[in-house]
Amino acid sequence: MKHRLDELAKSVAGRLVGDPECLIDGVGTLQRASEGQIAFLASGLYRQYLAQTAASAVILTESDLADYDGNAIVVKDPYLAYARIAGLVADEPPRRFGVHPSAVVEGGCHVADSTSIGANSFIGSGASIGENVYIGPGCVIESGAVIGADSTLVAQVTIGRDVTVGARALIHPGVVLGADGFGLANDEGVWVKVPQLGSVRIGDDVEIGANTTIDRGAIEDTIIEEGVKLDNLIQIGHNAHVGAHTAIAAAAMLAGSCTIGKHCTIAGGVGIGGHISVADGTTITAMSMVTSPIRESGVYSSGIPLDTNRNWHRNAVRFKKLDEISRRLKELEKRFDKVKNKG
Amino acid sequence: MKHRLDELAKSVAGRLVGDPECLIDGVGTLQRASEGQIAFLASGLYRQYLAQTAASAVILTESDLADYDGNAIVVKDPYLAYARIAGLVADEPPRRFGVHPSAVVEGGCHVADSTSIGANSFIGSGASIGENVYIGPGCVIESGAVIGADSTLVAQVTIGRDVTVGARALIHPGVVLGADGFGLANDEGVWVKVPQLGSVRIGDDVEIGANTTIDRGAIEDTIIEEGVKLDNLIQIGHNAHVGAHTAIAAAAMLAGSCTIGKHCTIAGGVGIGGHISVADGTTITAMSMVTSPIRESGVYSSGIPLDTNRNWHRNAVRFKKLDEISRRLKELEKRFDKVKNKG
Amino acid sequence: MKHRLDELAKSVAGRLVGDPECLIDGVGTLQRASEGQIAFLASGLYRQYLAQTAASAVILTESDLADYDGNAIVVKDPYLAYARIAGLVADEPPRRFGVHPSAVVEGGCHVADSTSIGANSFIGSGASIGENVYIGPGCVIESGAVIGADSTLVAQVTIGRDVTVGARALIHPGVVLGADGFGLANDEGVWVKVPQLGSVRIGDDVEIGANTTIDRGAIEDTIIEEGVKLDNLIQIGHNAHVGAHTAIAAAAMLAGSCTIGKHCTIAGGVGIGGHISVADGTTITAMSMVTSPIRESGVYSSGIPLDTNRNWHRNAVRFKKLDEISRRLKELEKRFDKVKNKG
């Protein structure tokens, strides 16, 4: 389907420059876009490709327009406008096909007529599947789970018993919601399982990346608020609480009972300790280790920057003497001052 | 089902305080429990909620009893007693339903009559499934695998060929046991696969969290001893050996041929190098990097604590000069001593 | 099947020592091999087991031959020769069985006659499955995906729409290729999804470990070149490009748009930042954090070595003063020099 450039500009409240009737039927990068495609310029890194682009139109800022004389949509935030326009011109909605004959839907479920359930998927008794939900092939929805309207479970997703997922969720393959939390008591060296009796509650408009796991709570529920975006291979422990519109990148680990504020950005590989709270609007850089509460919004980091193995090793062995170095420095300062004062 | 408080107290060898006939049919937290529920107090953090709790009874220690005048079970370890009591009053056993018609069970399997096999699961030829095993929907048990009695594979679990799992295992969705170890030889820059011919052997009473992977051994087997508890998204490489009653938290990485002792506690995100051995009873804190053997039990750590990005950056750049700092300090000490001695 | 030792020696261009007619039907370690098995010695750690081995033959180097008087195959690289010989004598090819009746193959697919498709697997419309491909139980191949000849998808693998996989791939359970990349634009605090319109292209001879995830590109494709070997639980973000014959160990994280060279070795738990490039032939040690480009081949590291928790803590708190320590040292040097010069 082709879209007129003026309509696309209007859809993002952008200013049209050039031919309003230019037809767009796809997206591309500045470097490789071809006729009929729209590209965007959101970073100075790519400005070099602007003049020669073969894109039929470009989304850019007012200040970048000076370097370009083709069709354009001028906006404040070209990346955001691109996201919206790409959704219009290029994103394909999942196919609708009803309930596949190989799917197993147990008795006592509520499955809306508009629901699609893919090949070899399983819906347990008492589950409730909302309007226009797409459940791809190989999914398992255990008994009592609730999936909100317009949600998509791409394939091979596992939703544990009684877990609730809000509307417009997008859940990627291999995600496991509602496995038992890691609760153990110790009886003279032997671990005794603490039954995990809470559930998982996922708000509206949440996206969950491939192979991410969110455990059910021990007594109360693990909670992911609305608008949260989770990347792949993330671990979220029991009774964690992730505030609305927080984004968490791949392989982050949130231990049990941590509380992450709203509008946080947590980079890949970050670990957050159990029972730790993180203030609203906090940014944590990649691979940081969070073992104390973060009470004030800001950007936080930890870790050691990369070096050649030879240099790193030389410095790393000194780390074990850092306290000693600090004490020796202080001692030398004192001795020097003493001599000086005498002097 | 309702339980009398005196019976629950007896089940954990606790001292009953208050009404022996008080009926309990669920559990709750001190803050949110309602009538009929039992709560517990195991950490000073929650003592503030004790006086006002609406729980019908509380599990606590003798010393906390002073602050509370309701029904109670007095024990030394309230968390352990809670684990046991929650198992009695609130945990639901998985449903039993025989072999689902959509399950595929190849010829030549041994499947006990009491086994449940869920929708769309697959049992390969020559597999052996013990009494009262529950295999949820979407599982794949490859040929020759053995699952011990009373084990539960929740859903979407993959057990590779010839892998053996002991009795009373609890294996969560997405777990993969017996994928090939990462064995490669190099032929002038091109990797040649080293066939992975060992298997995986899992002892009795092991729990394995969602999306955890345990690879088969190269020649001999990868071994997880009895009572080991594994959280989610853990990687255990080929020929690793994890000792009995060790607990490992989420996203830990055990490289090939490492040997972890018994009764260890390994926190989330810890990495243990190949061929490293770790002594019995060792504790390793979160995100630590273990590249040398740990020969003595104790608590071990590594990593850099979180700071504001600005402060962290200022210090992190100095890390690359740590060896130089150390040498300059030593030099200055020498020069000072020399002057002093002359002085 | 039994193999003559002289034939095995010939297959790896090795020198035969001892009985050419010695029959080999399996492999074992030096310590535990039994009659009929061949072992290898590739590391000094195991030389102690050479004299007493019960193996019928040993693969070793010329220099180790002095300590051994049994049957042998003498080569330069015993581990490489072992890999090849183990492939001949011990590795079992997956069974071939055609399309299982419970598999769902949608219309409009190209499935070669020699393809095996396991129980409860799903092949979407327009997918193309090459000659001799083995697709195990519980796999999902979405529409338009292409799987090259002689590839093996062990079980429970998910291949997203339009993803292409080369010839001779070996893909382990739980792998997800082609989930959406983590692309988000921010509209006054609310995340807007950036449609992920690229795909994933995997070259020939690639192995991908259990539960690893490789996301589709945002506009163009995520690319894994030929001969790449990936371990378990690895995350590869959208538009990453991994060069030929690079090996990446478990739980590594490659953020979006990073470019890894050819013939790199990346150890477990390494994190590589977005848009970072890494030179051909680079080695990165375990759990390193890569936030700047690596322009020259070499061995690189970061991180803090393990210590007792007590010592670690003492030093870690000083890390927050490292910049101050450095400045104070410089100041003291200056003051000392000043006094000295005056002196």
If you had to describe this structure to a student in words, what would you say it looks like?
Three copies of one chain form a homotrimer. The model of chain A has no long low-confidence stretch (mean pLDDT 96). The first copy, chain A, is flat and about 90 Å long. The longest helix of chain A has 21 residues, at 322-342. A ten-stranded parallel β-sheet of chain A has the order 8-11-14-17-20-25-28-31-34-37, with no helix packed on it. Chain A folds into three domains: 3-89, Udp-n-acetylmuramoylalanyl-d-glutamate--2,6- Diaminopimelate Ligase, Chain: A, domain 1 (3-Layer(aba) Sandwich); 104-300, 3 Solenoid (UDP N-Acetylglucosamine Acyltransferase, domain 1), CATH 2.160.10; 310-342. Chain A has five helices and 39 strands. In chain A, strand 21 and strand 22 (190-193) form a beta hairpin. With 343 residues, chain A is an alpha/beta fold. At the A-B interface, strand 21, strand 22, strand 36, strand 37 and strand 38 of A face helix 3, strand 39, helix 4 and helix 5 of B.
Q: Helical content of chain A, roughly?
A: 10-25%
Domain count of chain A, please report it.
Answer: 3
Number of strands of chain A: 39
Indicate the structural class of chain A: alpha/beta
From the N-terminal CA to the C-terminal CA of chain A, the straight-line distance is 88 Å
Using the CA coordinates, give the radius of gyration of chain A: 27 Å
Q: Please give the oligomerization state of what you see.
A: homotrimer
What is the name of the CATH superfamily of the largest domain in chain A?
A: Hexapeptide repeat proteins
Q: What spatial order of strands do you see in the largest sheet of chain A?
A: 8-11-14-17-20-25-28-31-34-37
Can you summarize the main beta sheet of chain A? 10 strands, parallel
Give the overall form of chain A.
Answer: flat
| Beta-strand content bin of chain A | 25-35%
* Largest inter-chain contact set: A-B, 76 and 73 residues
Give the CATH topology of the largest domain in chain A. UDP N-Acetylglucosamine Acyltransferase, domain 1
* CATH class value of the largest domain in chain A: Mainly Beta
Residue-averaged pLDDT of chain A: 96
CATH-level-2 architecture of the largest domain in chain A? 3 Solenoid
